[in-house]
Design a protein that fits this description.
With 72 residues, this protein is mostly helical. The protein has helices spanning 3-20, 26-46, 52-59. It has one domain (3-59). The radius of gyration is 12 Å and the shape is globular.
Length: 72
């Protein structure tokens, strides 16, 4: 997988998170978090240069897709 693929996947997961926002609870958050981490493990297995922590931070809205500032 390429960086573009990883970003596209992260954008999809960000959209899923946003769609759950009106119904967010601790159990749903934990389930999303677990799924995202499992997908991150898979991505890391596909590409050793994959930055798992940055990818998860991007999904959570803590940074931009390349680790920079958050853009809206």
């Amino acid at each position: 997988m390429t960086k573009k693929d990883f970003i596209a996947l992260a954008n999809t997961l960000r959209a899923v998170r946003a769609s759950y926002a009106p119904h967010w609870d601790a159990n749903l958050f934990r389930a999303c978090d677990d799924h995202e981490k499992a997908i991150a493990d898979f991505c890391q297995a596909q590409n050793p240069l994959f930055n798992r922590d940055r990818w998860l931070a991007y999904i959570a809205g803590q940074c931009g897709p390349s680790g920079g500032k958050v853009t809206k």
